[in-house]
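Exercise 7. Predict the joint structure of the components listed below.
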Amino acid sequence: MKQATFPTLGAAVVAVALSLVLVPASHAEDVAPEAQPLLMAHRSLTARGPVALSIAAEPQALHWAFETGFPLGATRSNTAGPAQRLSAPWRFDAFVNASHDREVVSNAAWLGYTLRLEHARPRAAHWLGVSRGGSQMSGDAQAMLRLGAGRVQMLGGVQAEVSWIGSSVMFKNDSRWPRTWTMRVTTPGDTTHPAGEKDSLISEPGDHSTYLNTGQAELRWQFGRLALASVVGVTLGHDVTARRWAQATAEWQLSRRVMLLASVGERPASSLAFNTVAHPRTMLGVQIAPWASKGWAMSDALQPTATSWRTQALKGDRAVVRVHCRDVTSVEIAGDFTDWKPVALLRMHGGWWYESVPVSPGVHRVQLRLNGGPWQAPPGLPRADDGPGGPSGTLVIFPAED
Amino acid sequence: MRRWSTAVVALFLAASTAWAGDEASDEARIHARLSGEAARQVSAVVREARAMGLPTDPLIARAFEGASRGADDAGLVAGVRRQASALAAARTSLGVASPSDEIVAGASALLAGVPADSLSRLRAVRPGGSLVIPLVVLCDLVARGVPVNVASVAVVTAARAGATDGALLRIRERIHTRIENGGAPATSTGEVVRQWLHESPAKTKRDAAPPAERKKVP
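Solution:
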């Protein structure tokens, strides 16, 4: 393993300090959940689209990666009552990624498979993951299986994460990891030396498996479309020199589909297994998500947006309102037909939320609120910005047809 | 003759009872939601509007909206008064026989800065038809940054050329798309309306008011 340039002690101190800070904070969030952006959304493929391709230029190599993923469900919605805030967003994602490093031309692309389960509260999140394969830069071992767990916490405007990743790895036929064994050699006697046997140590390339532990701590700041992060970590293992590493990254969401990436420093394959946005070395790159969601990735992370609004008039002066937005824990509407009292919508499948509300035929004003954030005009509706509550939508309800 | 007199008196009594019932119900809603002084002043504005024959629900809704957004009493009452004035002005511009939906939509347009004569011109263009959707589209264009005079001319021109409600909503969507893609609001509005006018014979024929489409909720 390569020796890193950053001290292990520093990484350990940061990790321990963050852990101490995070433990008491975990109780507070259960008592008073505040309206904050959902964590982890920046890692969610559904925030960037189902497919992403990244190309990174490194000092002497070119690295590309392709990733795709899909939510597997496990989302629990609370339907106890319309006034109760929907919460407890479990999320289960599957990822497949392929990457290639031009430095090792002979190798085909590496494939990685990851399953990740998240539980995100407004100001904290936990995740558990299992991964196999993935990036294998020079000096890295082949991953047989990785297990990971982490905790993310908002500390003011900073997102802090501590995580552990255990890896069962195999150094396959690598000359830097020789297999050593003892062979008894019989030497024939001659006139000067009698015949006899002696032990001889033989080192030759061979398979060498071991178990690695990686601990890492990350701080992440977000300023509009710019996200900065610094991560430090240490990788330890039996018969393996400890590897201390650190990396600083910057991500700039240029447009809905294009994100510029930059990183200084390095991080091992184990650290990349559960964060498909990260890259292994110092690089400048670009990530393209051709079918990106309507809001660009970081806008979803910072301020989720609704993408669609549907209204269907029913008999008896009622209407069904449907709103589409992903990665949110609550959707509320308020309008003149609710006497401007918030009404929580109920979660359906596929990012849709709905509720049947009493509304008579006519012209109405309505607003929408996601995750307890600011009130906004619903998407697609004509706007009327003459009210005291900011932009609102104009809802025209015609009598229901027989 | 006597039977007719009895019927008229009964009708008058029923109307009076309904009027008084509405008034009592509105008073109760206002006092349940607003603080004492604000409730008193808002109730006075609502009573005055009812006496003038204006729709009162928008006034109560405006008060509740202000309360839910944390407006202070003075701001809340001022907002309700502005709304009442706009409703009265909208009815004057659109005609006293205009239904309440049109008056509400017209008041929104006036509060957005649309001049009153634009409402009168729209009424002249569609003397017997509903102006709700044209007024909603007009408000929306102004909210999206289209200058008031450009938006007014665009909607009046399209309506005069025979644009149905569905066509107006599609024009609005096209303008919206162009603005989202970086187009200047005024330029985008002019281009879309000119393009629609160029295609209007076919459009008008296609949009010849299928009832289902006219009732489509935007």
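Discussion. The radius of gyration of chain B is 21 Å.
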